[in-house]
Amino acid sequence: MQNIDKAMMRLLSMSDWQEFRGFDSKKIKKELQLFDNEWKRYNPRKTPNNRWGLSVTSFDGGLSGIPDLDSLLNYEQETGITLHNHQCTEPTLVWEQCEELKRFLEPWKKWVTRCHFLRLDKGGFFPDHCDINKHDFSYDEVRFVGFVNTNRYGFKWIYDDKIIHADNGTFWYFNANKRHSVFSTWDNMILLVVCMNFDEELFLQMMDSALVR
Q: Model pTM?
């Protein structure tokens, strides 16, 4: 068994939710105003339901959302082009021009792959799903989420049939292999979604950076 396999086993034996040093959510919300006109429909090939994305990284460093805000599987089925999260790594202007975001992501930069802000307006939702790398065994990834603008009245994250409560400005690893769903009954509920390429170095970084260790 290689070290990366041991690291993944250790991670999955720990808590499904682990908190790390967060960010100033008020600063990030203010910085995002520079990009008010750059939000793109999230998963545009699916039935629209008020989900919007803003690319922090992308395949080409642009803000078109193609294909990084699309379903990469649906994109492959339509175009024949196969892409994975770990190929969407070019920083966009959002990364470069949002100072608080850039400061916050810097310690994680070498592992960050597909990364975007996700905005759910009223009626926006993700039905039950699992974000697991099902088909490609050549790499492993883990997911993190930052809570930028949410509240317990207008936003519900249901994880393994339990409602998750998190403060704005907090940043979490979560075991995305498990079933979860997200619903918004208010406008402008914003998350930061970060995929990271997993290796034993990332595991050590997580162990050193976790608020509880």
A: 0.95
pLDDT in the model for residue 72 = 75
pLDDT in tens, 116-165: 999 999 999 999 999 876 667 777 899 999 999 999 999 999 999 999 99
- In whole angstroms, what is the distance from residue 78 CA to residue 73 CA? 9
Q: Domain 3-209: what homologous superfamily?
A: B-lactam Antibiotic, Isopenicillin N Synthase; Chain (2.60.120.330)
Strand locations in the chain (E) = 17-20, 40-41, 51-55, 57-58, 90-91, 112-120, 125-129, 141-149, 155-159, 162-164, 171-174, 180-184, 189-197
Total Cβ atoms within 10 A of residue 162: 10
On whether the CB atoms of residues 160 and 129 are closer than 8 A, the answer is: no
Q: How far is residue 199 from each of residues 179, 192, 204, 209, measured CA to CA in Å?
A: 23, 22, 9, 15
Closest CA to 56 of 7, 9, 130, 108: 108
Segment 55-103, tens digit of pLDDT: 999 999 999 999 999 877 777 778 887 778 888 999 999 999 999 999 9
- List beta partners, residue 15: none
Integer Cα distance of 49 and 175 in angstroms = 25
